[in-house]
Amino acid sequence: MQPYELPLSAAADAIRARQLSPVELADSVLERIGEVEPHLQAYVTVTAEHARRAAREAEGDIAAGRYRGPLHGIPMALKDLIDVAGTATSAGSRVRANHRAQADSAVAARLAAAGAVLVGKTHTHEFAYGLTTPQTHNAWNTGRIAGGSSGGSAVAVAAGAATFALGTDTGGSIRVPAALNGVVGLKPTYGLVPRHGVTPLSWSLDHVGPITRTVKDAALVLTALAGHDPRDPASLATPAVDYRPGAGADLTGLRIGVPRTYYFDHVDAEVEAATRRAIGRLQSLGARLVEVGIPMTRYIRATQWGLMVPEATAYHENTLRTVPELYQADVRILLEAGELMPAGDYLRAQRARTLMRQEWARMLEEVDLIVAPTVPATAVEAGQESITWADGTVEGVSDAYVRLSSPANITGLPSLSVPVGHDAAGLPIGMQLLGRPLEESVLLRVGHAYEQTRPARELAPTT
Amino acid sequence: MSSVELTPLEAARWAARVGLPLPADRYAVVATTARHIHSVVAVLRELDFADTPPAPAYRAEQENHDAAV
């Protein structure tokens, strides 16, 4: 096994035991990037020189007894919406040509302090306003979409071109590409991970979180990321938590909500079957399954759009007037049309969010978490614009991919996407676990228990 | 198109009023997209919000479990 193939937790164990040097690991990951990038195009920028220097420093520190923890010497990628001092944050847009970040974002600073080694910045759908990331190819089939908007991050992790990565998630942008590329994605509780220095799409829906090979890896990264930062007005003052799940896989007593509405409607048969098989495994580990009715489903899409569209337009107000021609066509039209949304529609969406949060809180008194597919279909062909369901209904690709993930953005609840198999074409399928606010530990425990019932996951067969 | 739906010229006037002068070749596409967005968000008018306040900024952990009281 080559070092780039190691999941974070295994690499960390090997580094701590001095069986693996951070320099060997960084070199292996950089070599892997060189192999797969021509096929995948996950990266905007590869910071090879920086990575080798940081890896040498990590090696020296660890040899001198200054081991900082499980991220020390681990190669990581950051979505190119996340500021790193002295480098460009392109946001996937020509609007950001010649950009240079003056300072580290809160998350980049925390990961640097934990000793993680930046290997590069990954592609995003332009300003995170889309679900495909057209610059990047799916790690399992280069003719398929990467998913988005954190497509580069998910593809890099799936292919072994980063040991972990960060993404952002406004309607599903961590979990959608994670599901479509067979990796783990965690959207934490709103406010748990500070967003200072991360380019916003929609302030009241935006989250930052990890994309990793395993659930345990996601727990290690979240432990380094979580915690208050007064520079993000939504940041929560929470105590430090070690999110690493325990070794046990016993779920006895846990009440798992299985939706009887919404989450299995207009879902591909293979996706539904794989999710229900995974739910069966959770039951066999001792969990009790409880059917739940998802509240206010008719208003989910309207609330998501009512919040996201005017907030995104507000952020881009100046550049939409000065350099509109620099935006891609799909993003420009949404920003322009967003200018025409009355404030009443925005306030109605804000009030609907209040109602939805109350209803989800009631539902989560009856169960400890909800399980559902992450996305209703596996990765579609690049360029495909719609999905036709069995009953003849036609749905836009982006609408379909965001449909099951956006409730967690509206409510701020944590959601973890875990790979649960592949369809007949060999494309990955994801299951999401949704929990109560700040109960990431429950989701990570259940996801980790599920992973222990499965053989170790392999990297995408990218050549 | 129903009589209450936005026409390309109205889209152009609305955009101009908010300080976004559109080139003429954008009128129709902006109107079409604005109509689509409107059709999506308009269903929220069905809800009876009573005294429900908006949630423009909120603390996810401060759930009100007695919201119905």
TrEMBL record, chain A:
Which segments constitute the Amidase domain? 25-444
- PANTHER family under this entry? AMIDASE AMID-RELATED, TRANSAMIDASE
Name of one Pfam family that matches: Amidase
Q: Tell me what this protein is called.
A: Amidase
- Gene3D superfamilies, from UniProt? Amidase signature (AS) domain
A GO molecular-function annotation:
catalytic activity
Question: Which InterPro entries does the entry mention?
Answer: Amidase, Amidase_CS, Amidase_dom, AS_sf
From TrEMBL, chain B:
Q: Which domain of life is it from?
A: Bacteria
Which protein, by its recorded name, is this? Answer: Amidase
Protein species of origin: Streptomyces longwoodensis
